[in-house]
């Protein structure tokens, strides 16, 4: 996973590669407002480094407490080594 800034989007994003697919979400936990890139990615779940809450990176859904508010997700298009089309879902 890697945190990125994208022109036209106010928030920083995290790009994840899981089983050959690329996903993107907002970079900050909706509960603790800390960078998710400091957390652990297990399968499709990113765990916040502050309180351990988890989110599904495919859907943004909060999957473990104390997180309840989902992450914003963004559509991605991969062409070779480049990622395009980071648009809010």
How many individual helices? 0
What is the fourth-level CATH superfamily?
A: Rieske [2Fe-2S] iron-sulphur domain
CATH-defined topology: Rieske Iron-sulfur Protein
Q: Provide the CATH architecture.
A: 3-layer Sandwich
Strand order within the widest sheet?
1-2-3-8-9
How many discrete structural domains? Answer: 1
Which structural class matches the secondary elements?
A: mainly beta
How big is the Rg?
12 Å
Quick structural overview:
By secondary structure, the chain is mainly β.
Protein architecture, described:
By secondary structure, the chain is an all-beta fold. It has a single domain, classed as Rieske [2Fe-2S] iron-sulphur domain (Rieske Iron-sulfur Protein, 3-layer Sandwich), CATH 2.102.10.10. It is built from no helices and nine strands. Strands 1-2-3-8-9 form a five-stranded antiparallel β-sheet, with no helix packed on it. It has a four-stranded antiparallel β-sheet with strand order 4-5-6-7, with no helix packed on it. The radius of gyration is 12 Å and the shape is globular. The mean pLDDT is 89. Its cofactor is [2Fe-2S] cluster.
